[in-house]
TrEMBL record:
Superkingdom of origin: Eukaryota
Ranges of Low complexity composition bias in the record: 212-224
PANTHER family: SYNAPTOGYRIN
The name this protein goes by in its record: Synaptogyrin
Keywords linked to the UniProt accession: Membrane, Transmembrane, Transmembrane helix
Ranges that cross the membrane: 30-47, 67-89, 101-123, 143-166
Amino acid sequence: MNSSSEPQAFGAGRTGSAFDPIEFIKKPQVILRVVAWVFATIVFASIAQEGYVNGVCRYNESNACGYGVAIGVIAFLLTIGFTALDVYFPNISNIKTRRTAVLSELGASGALTFFWFIGFCYMTDQWRQEDQKDLPEWNGRNSVQAAIAFAFFSILVWAALTFFAFRRYREGVSNLFSSGYEDHSGTGGQTYGGYPSTGGVGSFSQPPFTATQQSQSSYQPPTY
């Protein structure tokens, strides 16, 4: 969160606020995304390079290799996408759009936490059932075991990202009522001046047609 006194809305100030790259890099969620990106790359590369022998998955000839590669690619892309969104986030003026972006990250982070947990359990169980953990002229045992290890570490990282996304959403909703942040994206942020006087200067002391309405309300019908 920004430590300045500027009103905040879901982790960023008003639209057009100056972007500070140093402060951005120091954000816990940015650091965690970098770590998650590294872990996803290791899992994907380990399985893609050493997880198959003659087209057969080394995790007990199961679909664990495909699952690990798929979840690694998804996590890789999401970390890049949410980091780019975080850079652009201060330029989003609509409060509903900001809230949707934060909720999207919260949902995606929670889902990745679950999928990494499933992947870790799946790969661990299939590797446990693998009878031939060492094959002639194959040196990929450390790689497939590293994929399992970093799948476990990814659970922790994405769980932390889920926590920070939830805290960001909760503080964002709270700050909307306490910091005086105003949404200037729609007509609600516009103000209008008073009616011009007959001389073109100043403003009416009352809206138009009021005098006519008052004269009509004071009309008395004739008595016959």
